Amino acid sequence: MKRVFSGVKPSGNLTLGNYLGAMRHFVAMQADYECFYSVVDLHALTVPQDPEALRQQAISLAALYLAMGIDPERSTLFMQSQVPAHAELSWLLQCTSYMGELSRMTQYKEKAEGQESVTVGLFTYPALMAADILLYQTDIVPVGEDQKQHVELTRDIAVRFNNRFGETFRVPEPVIPRVGARIMSLSEPTKKMSKSSDSFGDIRLLDEPSVIKKKINRAVTDSEAVVRYDPVAKPGLSNLLVIHALCSGESVAALEERYAGQGYGAVKKGTIEAVVSVLEPIQVRYRELMATDEILDILTAGAIKAQEAAAPTLRQAKQAMGLNV
Ligand code: AMP
Ligand code: TRP
């Protein structure tokens, strides 16, 4: 069976963008692949975190994975920091990556821009991400559009390592959804929806239905008042159509037809209903899981399974580079 690996950072409130662009697909892929999903807490350390808050956010993210339908009997769900092989392989890969290629990463450039100081970790982060993926001989990496460049760098790192030290890593493929790879902010629809955008721009996975309603009703649209998918001329409305389509399981074209001749109010109302119908059941299961200790046991078992799966590749990489194993 082919292998899938992906990860999400526990850096605060997850958004509908994380779900529609990535996590929804993690759930679906369990049927056809052997899946490894991680709470990548080491990645969260690249920017300042409050230690107690980080600990809580990591548990909360694990609960969200489970609430969405990640089944720990079928998939390996684990916390990155509990599997030391990630940090260890990351060092080996940092020593085979170049300043030039890491400097070209757009996420680094965006995050570093205008900051007085940035950590070394923010710069070397893609080498840690490459380690996450390569440790499991991964075939497929489901991610949103913004992570494609990092997966492509991972491929370059793997090919170069294999050429220089002998066949060690499988070269993974990114899988980016055809629709929803880049969910946009509701308040600034030319920017991606992210955890840090202003409070009306993002829908958080744990937002109450009343909050979801308020945010979607305030979403920026345009003054043309014609329901048509056109992300360039009508980015706000087009984003709502994509969100609606993915949450209600319809196509954007079907929605254009249904809402033809109606105002944007009708589109917003339909979008609210579709989003609430997806998020509400996840929120109910999330609250149930957070009230038990089950999550900690699942993560402990997941870390053991992940460490076992990662060990042979780490050993082979160390040996190939000339370390005494
Ligand atoms: P992060 O929260 O940065 O760890 O991202 C976790 C996953 O969610 C990655 O695969 C991202 O590409 C994806 N993602 C984050 N924001 C969005 C968005 N606005 N639209 C689509 N995918 C997203
Ligand atoms: N860097 C990814 C993000 O910010 C998270 C991540 C870390 C990841 N390691 C990964 C995603 C490995 C896919 C595979 O979204």
Fold and architecture overview:
- Helix content is 54%, strand content 7%.
- The strands form 2 sheets. The chain has a 3-stranded parallel beta sheet with strand order 1-2-3.
- α4 packs across α7.
- It has 13 helices and 5 strands.
- The mean pLDDT is 97.
- The radius of gyration is 21 Å and the shape is globular.
- α1 links the parallel β1 and β2 (34-39).
- The protein has 2 domains: 3-180 and 293-320, HUPs (Rossmann fold, 3-Layer(aba) Sandwich), CATH 3.40.50; 209-287, Tyrosyl-Transfer RNA Synthetase (Orthogonal Bundle).
- By secondary structure, it is mostly helical.
- Bound molecules: adenosine monophosphate (AMP) and tryptophan.
Write the layout of secondary structure elements.
Elements lengths: L2 E6 L7 H14 L4 E6 L1 H4 L6 H18 L7 E4 L5 H10 L4 H5 L2 H7 L7 H15 L5 E3 L5 H18 L7 E3 L33 H9 L17 H14 L3 H7 L5 H27 L3 H28 L4
Parallel strand pairs: 1-2, 2-3, 4-5
The chain binds adenosine monophosphate and tryptophan.
Strand order of the largest sheet: 1-2-3
Low-pLDDT residue spans? none
Oligomer: single chain
Average per-residue pLDDT, rounded, comes to 97
Structural class: mainly alpha
CATH class of the largest domain: Alpha Beta
Assign a percent range to the helix content.
40-55%
Strand content: 5-15%
- State the distance separating the first and last CA atoms: 29 Å
The CATH topology of the largest domain is given as Rossmann fold
Q: Radius of gyration, rounded?
A: 21 Å
Shape descriptor reads globular
Total count of domains: 2
